[in-house]
């Protein structure tokens, strides 16, 4: 399997995919010499336009590893990954990454940059702003995205002075700058208090409504934070998929108990979820 960047396919990563398929993994595994077990083992998974997936599983289950494959940040050890119709290992992954929004709270953002500047950097996929690359249309788009995510008033505020909830929404606005077809969110609710979490849930639900073709994959630790827009779930344990498919087919007390290795009771509250462990 490929381990480095290869030639460009020539037709650009935004075209050439099977109708509606955004991401397809076939028999993928990831091995690391230093790991006791495989971070990921024999996984096949397809994400289509308009689907909103939640990746759930205990610590070390392989969620972040899977998200890194989906974002063309790493290559599989075996199997194939087709992203936006292009096979990893046969295209310039830098070009491919430009069509995937990746939101990771651990990603470095210069704290002195204003919220507007941080969103602008999404247009170039850079940490630092590349001022000569941002024309009027790009600047206006950054302003519109800030407004869409309720951060209009934060435009000139330094990113480092924004609350964690505000930062989370600014990061998503940044990731949407290149109009990606796939948005990956790695624990976007991490560190948020209850109102900030609910604001972000609202934003993600609005996003699903306003961009019906956008596919999203969200890594989460808590069922309570899943937006009602989540349509599909992949349950991982020890690097292996336990179940995957539509929320109504996959999510339940029995499947979650198997996934987390504890008896879990799952309650549906309207379009949201509440989970807790129960004494055997
Ligand atoms: N580069 C690496 N070298 C060795 N082991 C690794 C490497 N990357 C990940 N692993 C191992 O693979 C397993 C899966 O890691 P991963 O970060 O994908 O899990 P996760 O489900 O995201 O966990 P968490 O919920 O704690 O963030 C872990 O046991 C981890 O230690």
Name its key features.
280 residues, disordered N terminus, 8 helices, alpha/beta, 4-stranded antiparallel beta sheet, Rossmann fold, binds adenosine-5'-triphosphate, single chain
Task: Walk me through what this model shows.
This protein is of the alpha/beta class. It has 2 domains: 14-99 and 181-280, P-loop containing nucleotide triphosphate hydrolases (Rossmann fold); 109-179. The chain has helices spanning 63-70, 93-97, 115-124, 136-148, 164-176, 194-210, 247-250, 253-260; strands spanning 21-30, 40-48, 52-56, 78-83, 86-87, 100-103, 182-186, 215-219, 232-237, 240-246, 264-269, 272-277. The strands form 3 sheets. A 6-stranded mixed beta sheet has the order 6-7-8-3-9-10, with helices on both faces. α3 (115-124) runs parallel beside α5 (164-176). Bound molecules: adenosine-5'-triphosphate. Adenosine-5'-triphosphate binds next to α1. Adenosine-5'-triphosphate (ATP) binds next to α1. InterPro entries: AAA+_ATPase, ABC_transporter-like_ATP-bd, ABC_transporter-like_CS, P-loop_NTPase. Keywords: ATP-binding, Nucleotide-binding.
């Amino acid at each position: 399997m490929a381990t480095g960047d290869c030639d460009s396919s020539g037709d650009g990563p935004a075209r050439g995919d099977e109708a509606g398929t955004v991401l397809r993994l076939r028999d993928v595994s990831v091995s690391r010499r230093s790991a006791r077990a495989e971070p990921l083992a024999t996984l096949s998974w397809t994400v289509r336009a308009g689907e909103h997936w939640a990746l759930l599983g205990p610590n070390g289950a392989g969620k972040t590893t899977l998200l890194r494959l989906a974002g063309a940040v790493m290559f599989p050890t075996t199997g194939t990954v087709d992203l936006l119709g292009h096979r990893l290992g046969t295209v310039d992954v830098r070009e491919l990454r430009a069509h995937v929004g990746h939101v990771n709270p651990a990603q470095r953002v210069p704290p002195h940059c204003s919220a507007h500047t941080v969103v602008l950097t999404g247009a170039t996929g850079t940490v630092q702003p590349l001022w000569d690359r941002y024309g009027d249309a790009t600047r206006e788009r950054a302003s519109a995205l800030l407004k869409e995510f309720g951060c209009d008033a934060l435009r000139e505020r330094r990113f480092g002075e924004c609350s964690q909830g505000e930062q989370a929404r600014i990061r998503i606005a940044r990731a949407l700058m290149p109009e990606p077809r796939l948005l990956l969110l790695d624990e976007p609710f991490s560190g948020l208090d209850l109102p900030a979490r609910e604001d972000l849930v609202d934003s993600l639900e609005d996003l699903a409504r306003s961009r019906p073709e956008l596919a999203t994959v969200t890594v989460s630790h808590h069922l309570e934070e899943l937006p009602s827009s989540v349509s599909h779930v992949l349950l991982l344990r020890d690097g292996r998929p336990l179940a995957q498919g539509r929320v109504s087919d996959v999510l339940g007390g029995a499947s979650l108990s198997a996934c987390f290795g504890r008896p879990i009771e799952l309650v549906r509250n309207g379009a949201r979820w509440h989970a807790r462990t129960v004494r055997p």
